[in-house]
Amino acid sequence: MTDAPIAKPVLDLIILDCPDALALGGFYSELLGWPMEPGADRDWVNLVPPGGGVSPERPDGRPTLAFQRIEDWVTPTWPGGAHPQQVHLDLTVVNIDASEPSVLALGARRHEHQPSKDGGFRVYLDPAGHPFCLIQ
């Protein structure tokens, strides 16, 4: 038994399940301007955030997004429903109205349910159906 300090875990990947990792990874790569790591395929994609991501190859980097293909993928429902969302992303923009056209052009859809009372955020669905928000 040693008295060495216990290392804290480091957040490495935030992984979104989806029906096609390459397609959804491509959507978020374009949306965020983060390139895909080499070796991306339909089953698994890692994006590279500015400054790199955290992994054994990038120990001083930042957490990144990854996408994993699930054979029996079921689109999340929001709000509520039989398959409720488990996680969603909030993406900060300077102006939601100015940012929306490019988000929609990439394949996102504006969700019909918009709970923001003051317009400080807007809910969208990515091409696989995950809710995400643009916030200002």
Automatic annotation (TrEMBL):
Pfam families: Glyoxalase_6
Alphabetical list of SUPFAM superfamilies matching this protein: Glyoxalase/Bleomycin resistance protein/Dihydroxybiphenyl dioxygenase
InterPro entries listed in its UniProt record: Glyas_Bleomycin-R_OHBP_Dase, Glyoxalase_6
Domain of life: Bacteria
Domain Glyoxalase-like positions: 14-135
Protein name: Glyoxalase-like domain protein
Classification lineage: Bacteria, Bacillati, Actinomycetota, Actinomycetes, Micrococcales
